[in-house]
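Proteins fold reproducibly. Next comes a concrete instance:

***
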Amino acid sequence: MPEERVAGARLEAGALEDDLQQLHDDRGPSHLGDGEKSAARAMQPEGEQRREHSPANLGQRADEALDGEGQVVGEGAGGRANREQEALVPPRDGVSPVGEHEYDGKSGGAGEQARHRAPPCRFECSRQTIPSSWPIHDNTSIALSRRQWIVLTGASTAAFWIALGIVERSLPSGTPGILAFEFVRNADRAARFLAEWGADGRDTVRLSLIVDYGFMASYGAFVTLAGLATRDFGREHGRRALASAGRVVPWFAAAAAIFDAGENAFLLLTVGGNGGSAAPVLATVCASVKWVLIVVAVGYVAWGLGARLLLRVRNRPQQGADSPAEGH
């Protein structure tokens, strides 16, 4: 099979050479088109192609192609502009919009279809010109600063706090509140709370515990970020005690949110009657640890705020101290 393909290709090349020779005899070399000239050059021996593309021969062709006014013969300014515009278009898959014609050899004869392929570059180019109209994609990501996250989580914490207050007001008057239910301690006390609330009150408590998950995520992030900002303030201004405590204390708020999540899980089991005698006890333990951690974390942030205010007061110039004395 490879030998047959080689033989067929040689026959087609011979037929193409005969057709081109006939066109050359009929029309003359000066009347050949660009595609026919390129095909004719492709059929030349390798030695003649090298001599044809030599620097001396290229210079001679350039001198012959220019007329007295510096314009290309037979092309004009419009053609040159089109050629320069097409030269800016980058090749796609190795195919250039302008270049030499290469016959594919499928239909045979002088009427064969031509493919445009990128011609060999006659001059070495080190850079490729990119048109200014090409789109440039900017993948810059927008990230919030710590201060912006503190403001965002603080607003979310306030919103959840208000929502929890509204839900708790729906409980029957004179019945225990959610804070008392967190320290329910045992199953007997839990049963008394559930009986006083009734069916509607238990639904309200269940809704409050579910909304509380959003609240714990908000205050956990808010107090943790505020604690980290307090730690950085202590390091920047030489507050050793504040900076040392900042290694651990800011993370107490995140830990408090985790214990709060466990507390709510045990309270939901208690409200549903599936917690037995262990769920109220475990809920009380989680609530106790949560409150200790959150109080310490909030106290640390308050300590940092006090240090900031004190530093601002000390750095504030006394009113009228720098003003010039009034003349008599």
In short: The longest strand covers residues 100-103. The chain has two domains: 2-117, 149-315. Residues 2-117 form one domain. Residues 66-77, 93-116, 122-138 have pLDDT under 50 and may be disordered.
